[in-house]
Known about the structure:
By secondary structure, the protein is of the alpha+beta class. The protein has one domain: Beta-Lactamase (2-Layer Sandwich). It is built from nine helices and seven strands; from the N terminus they run αααααββααβββαββα. The chain has a five-stranded mixed beta sheet, with helices on both faces. Strands 6-7 form a two-stranded antiparallel sheet. The radius of gyration is 32 Å and the shape is elongated. It is found in: Cell membrane.
Amino acid sequence: MEKRLKWFRPKTIKHKxxxxxxxxxxxxxxxxxxxxxxEIRANQIQTKTEEIEQDTIRTATELxxxxxxxxxxxxxxxxxxxxxxxxxxDYSSPYAFFETYQxxxxxxxxxxxxxxxxxIRVYVDNPSIMSSVGLYPLSQDVKDSEWYQEAxxxxxxxxxxxxxxxxxxxxxxxxxxxxxxxxxxxxVLSIAVSNDKITEILQNSGNTFFLxxxxxxxxxxxxxxxxxxxxDQYRLLLEEQExxxx
Length: 246
């Protein structure tokens, strides 16, 4: 042990100066460099985290604005007395219905001025009404569907569903609700949110987004081949984070 200790003892002035140089200059520079690199990395992480948070808030705000626009239109339709009159009437011929409906431009106006809307459908139990923009006679398939029955049960409450459209067979996020006039059922409303609008909002973000409804993945950005697997991994990571916080 003594021999080993002797080996580390500076034997000359040159050795002593070298050790002083290492102690006074090299070590502090190394420590300062390590501190600076650590601080820079921490600042980069913090900056990136703040960017993600701000981007998430902006995207959520745009999505909320889109859904609020859909809700607003559904409220107008719910309170539309003229629509209730048209739906209640018994038409002697398709032309009689067409002539009456020509004086009701509201659905066309909603589709024209609200890019958030893909289509509007009001299903009514009136065989004298012909399929047109916004109004559709109630078929047995629609009447037996789960979403229609739920809308009736909720009696005017707003319901969000990701479902296939009975007319086009395309899949959209839909607002559904039953329409009543003085407790009398007028019809069941379905407003489809534009897929292009949602995709546009998500694409404006530089981060990965998963949009879910009742734990069902309905939209994502970017689009991946096995998006469900990616989402499952994300959920697992989120659950682990929540467990650590608790």
